[in-house]
Every structure is written in structure tokens, then in C-alpha cells.
Description:
Layout: H1 3-47, H2 64-79, H3 84-96, H4 100-113, H5 119-128, H6 133-146, H7 151-163, H8 167-180, H9 185-197, H10 201-214, H11 219-232, H12 235-246, H13 258-264, H14 270-286, H15 294-305, H16 309-322, H17 327-339, H18 343-356, H19 361-373, H20 377-390, H21 395-407, H22 411-424, H23 429-443
Amino acid sequence: MSRKQRERRDAAASTRATQSKLVRRLVPVLLGLAVLALAFNTYWWISRPRLEPLPVVETESLEPQVRSVIQQALDEVTAKDFSAAAWGDLGAVLRAHDFAAPAEVSYRNAERLDAADYRWPYLLGVSLAPTDAEQSLSCLQRAAERCGNEPHVQLRLAEMLLERERNQEAEALVEKVLKYAPTNPRGQLVKARLLFAAGNIDEALSWAGKSAAGAPDRRAPHLLVAQLCRRTGDKEGEARELELLEKIPDGITPWEDPDVSAVLSLRKDQAARLAQARSAAQLLAQEKDIKDGATALELAQAYNQTREYAAAEAVLRTMLRRFPSDERLHFEAGVAAFRQKKFQAAESDFRRAIELKPDRADAHYNLGQALLKLDQRANARGAFAEAVRLQPTHAFARINLADLLLESGEIDAARQEAEIAVRLAPREARARELLDKSKRRKGN
Length: 444
């Protein structure tokens, strides 16, 4: 064997030895990584939320549009089975179409996947209330702990606690709400009921009166005022409240609830509702059996929901000639006009609604939107500011106010409004954009 051959042989042997040594070193590392990966996967498998199975929903007898929206929500969960949003959206779609039990399964799974989002235990609690009061209470308590400043969540829980005579817990919630939303009529009513239960009749009457003034179209405050007037021997006051009650439709008038409204807005079988509303139009045309604008309002809202804005406005204009002091009709007329881009008419309607009910925050907000369309930016800013004053949790009023403040160079005030808006509506991209813009402007 020549010298060169020996050198090549030795070099090859040296390379093999080096490679072998490297492999021996890598084997423990690779084994360690494999063990870590196995341990991680095992931990994830053991610790991941245990979800209830995808509910079976019989949709054969439903309208095609309803079947389609439910199937889409089911498919989304199938594709993203560990997505809290997908499960929550499925629960909302099912509950909107009266599938209570499968909706509750979906809400429970959504909460298991995202325990920080108050909506899932809240909507589960609302759904369970008629059938399982104790479970409903537990759900609402979890929601109230997570919701921040959401008065509808805390007050629904306070009302349930009050029904169970857990007045101390209810009082703590009410005081919290009234601290950041002092003109909230629902909070004022619960406060009045707590004072009544404690025997403070005069103070209870004062708070009930505030609630009735702030929510003139709801029966509960007037009923309590009438009851308290009877207790104090104020026959005139009792008679006045009973006369007002005759003008308010019977039944439960629900308080505003953005989460429940969002669920109900998903309902797709509007045909039957619209048919009922249109049958009411016959009554309106003939002007029979109508004591106030409630039927007209229901009809107009049905038209607005199905985007028949001209029909809604026509009904409302007719009824406003009969009931010119009904702020609800003016407000809904403003909505119909705005949707038709009749911004001057919308402004007029919202202003009249505010004249009749100055503390209606959504009327101030809608007025601000109409004024923006009319390029009256300074006036719009005032309208949004008033909406925020009346309803500090109105995130979109704060967003618009922050935008206008930033536009006028009031950077610190704009940043403050944007920061609050982000806390109130963390998923709203525009709020985050305004906050970032105000920070950049301040930095410059």
C-alpha cells in the first residue's frame, strides 16, 4: 500500500471516528428533546379543558336560512374545536333560535376554553334562569367578577340576589354600579327596592322616583312608586302613577342588555315576526284600539330590522301626529331617517327625543352621528360628550369623542377617552388605533 493510500485510509478513519463521536454526543440531546416533546404533549393532553361533545341539533323542520346559519356555526366548531369564540358563537346562534340545551353546552365549552371572557357565563346564566336558578346564580356571579364596568351584568345578579334576600351582596353590587353610572334607572330601582326592604320608605320613594323619571316606559319603577305612595298615604301620588301605568303596555318591559340583544339579533326567521307586525299595520291604518304609540313602535322596529326604512318612517310620521310627545317614536324615526341618509331629518328627530327625555344616552350618541354626517363636528363632539356623561360605559361614544378631541389637538383628553374605550371594548380595533395615534402624537 502506497503512502498516499495509507493517508487516505487514516483520514477516512479519522472522519468516521469524529462522526461517531458527534452522534454519541447528539443522541442524548435528541433523546432529551424527544422526552420534552412527549412530556409537553402529555401535559397538554392531560390539562386541556374537557369539553362536552358537539350537540346534536335537529334542523330538518327549520327554514332554510335558519338551517344554514346553524350549520355554519357547527362547521366552525368542527374546524376549530378548541376555539372559545367558535363555541360561544355557536351557543349564541342556537339560543337565538330557541335551542336552549345545546346552546348551554356550547356556552359551557366556551367558558372552559376562555375563562376571562364574562360573556359565556353571563349568557349561560341568562339561559339557565328559567330552569335552574341556582346554576344561573353561580354563572352570573362568575360573570360579574370578570365583566369590569358592565351594569347590565352586575344589576341582573343584584336582582337575583335581592329575590333571595341576600341584600348585603346585592347592595355592594348596586353601589358599585351607581358609582360609575349614577343615572342608571335600573340601578336606581334596585337601590329603591333595597331601601324598601330595609324599611327606609322615604328614601326608597326618592330613588324609585328617579328610576321612574329615567325610564318612563318601564312598568316596574312606576309600580314601586305607586306602592310606596300607598304606604305613605299619598293618594294623589298613587293615582298619578296608576294613570301612567295605564299607558304602558302590560307584560315585562326588559331593560337594555347589549349581550342579550346581540344574541337576539342573530335570529334569522324574521318572516313570521314581520307578518305579525304588518297585520298590526292594518290596525294602524284604521286607527282602532290604539291607546299610545307602542304598537306603532313595534311595527317600525320590525321594519327597521328588515331594512324597510321608508316603511318604518311612514308609520312613525303618521303616529307622531297623534302622539307628538312620545320620545320613543321620535328616536325610532331618527333611526329610520338616518338609514335613508336623511341626516337633517334624523338630527331633528334625535333632538326632539332629547328634549322629551334629556338623559337618554343613545339619543345623544345618535345625534352625534347625524351631526358628523352634516359636518357639524363641534356640535357632534358635544353630543358624544353628553352621551359619555350619561352613560360612562358607552364605548362607541368615547371612541368618537376621542377621535374629535384628537382632531382638535387635545391629545391628553383624546388619549384618556381612548384608554377607557379600550378597557370597555378591548376587541374594538378603532379604539386601539386611536390610543396608538394619541400616544404617537404625544411623543412627537
